[in-house]
Amino acid sequence: MLNESYRVLKPGGTVRICVPDLAYAIRLYSEGEKEKMLNSYFFVEPNGSHYARHKYMYDFQIMKQTLVEAGFENIVRCKYQQGLTPNLDKLDNRPEETLFVEAKKISNK
Description:
By secondary structure, this protein is α+β, with helices and mostly antiparallel strands. It has one domain. It has helices at 2-8, 22-30, 34-42, 60-70, 88-91; strands at residues 14-20, 73-78, 98-104. It has a three-stranded antiparallel β-sheet with strand order 1-3-2. Helix 2 packs antiparallel against helix 3 (34-42).
């Protein structure tokens, strides 16, 4: 998905990735909130769809490396409803548990 995003994005364009934050899940687990962590991150009911479950977990460093491998540059961790992407007040949700990352396509490689 990231390779295709890079391919179709114009040079100078920004991609915003919002995924469950692995660091948050680990913190819940280490603070004794194991049930909340397991039910929120790993064993979520699929709601009849294969796509309803998360297949991977990322912290910022893992996501940054994945974006670099896809060709992106200027990779930054953003705060909830902050960044270069328009309409974040409508797009962002789950501020505590989400990793928000933006990256730029600098040129066609």
